[in-house]
Amino acid sequence: TLIGWIQVYIFFFYCGCLCSYCVGRAVMVYMDFWIKDWATRSENTTLVIGNATTLLPLSAVEGSIPNFNLQDEFLLFYGVLGIAATIVSGIRSLTWVVSSLRAAKNLYHSMMTVILAAPMRFFDTTPTGRILSRAAEDTKQIDEQLPQFLRFSLDSLFLLIGACITIAIVIPYM
Q1: Contact call for residues 88 and 27 (beta carbons, < 8 A)
Q2: Measured distance CA(107)–CA(30) in Å, rounded
Q3: What is the mean pLDDT of the chain?
Q4: Which pTM does this prediction carry?
Q5: If exposure means fewest CB atoms within 10 Å of the residue's CB, which of 5, 88, 106, 169 is most exposed?
Q6: How far apart are CA 105 and CA 139, in angstroms?
Q7: Cβ–Cβ < 8 Å for 58, 45
Q8: Cα(96)–Cα(148) distance, rounded to whole angstroms?
Q9: Cα 166 from Cα 35, distance rounded (Å)
């Protein structure tokens, strides 16, 4: 192990975690824009015939052009975005599980190293139940509560960033 440096694979692992959050939030924001675009185009569509441009209801255009079903195309692309969001969410969950297991393993290893290196006087004065209880409580904290807190914090952070980006994109068009 190196002191003062992180290993390359750990650096790329955490970069991948952050990228999965960024991509996940980007897909969710794009899904919102897609629904807005879908709703806007469902109301009216522009039909160009020769040099004339007319604004017609979508129902009038769909019936007049063979094999034209804009709703199916919108729904298909929205489904693809939903599948992409699900895959990114699965990757993000997998990275959480791997990170949590790695943190628990490191905590348990350092805790056992310190306990086994303790002098015999420590074991004579400290009841075994207290040592086991403390070890179990620390392991429970790192396994259950810390990952939930970090996940909630990162979800909130990227939700805020996504909202700010969405607002920055939408405001100039209002």
Answers
A1: yes
A2: 39
A3: 77
A4: 0.61
A5: 5
A6: 9
A7: yes
A8: 10
A9: 14
Residue 69: pLDDT band with limits 50, 70, 90: low
| Four-CA torsion 30, 32, 35, 39, nearest 10 degrees | -120
* Residue 57 bridge partners (DSSP): 44
Angstrom distance (rounded) from CA 39 to CA 73:
13
**What b/e sequence results for 27-51 when a residue is b if at least 16 CB atoms lie within 10 Å of its CB, and e otherwise?**
bbbebeeeeeebeeeeeebeeeeee
Which residues, in sequence order, are bridge partners of residue 45?
56
Nearest by Cα to 154 from 105, 89, 84 = 89
pLDDT tens-digit profile of 89-111?
888 888 888 877 887 888 888 88
Tens digits of residue pLDDT in 162-173: 888 888 887 876
Task: Give the C-alpha separation, 31 to 55, whole Å.
Answer: 26
DSSP labels, 88-154 = HHHHHHHHHHHHHHHHHHHHHHHHHHHHHTS-HHHHHHS-HHHHHHHHHHHHHIIIIIHHHHHHHHH
Q: Which pLDDT score is estimated for 73?
A: 76
Q: How far apart are the first and last CA of the chain?
A: 55
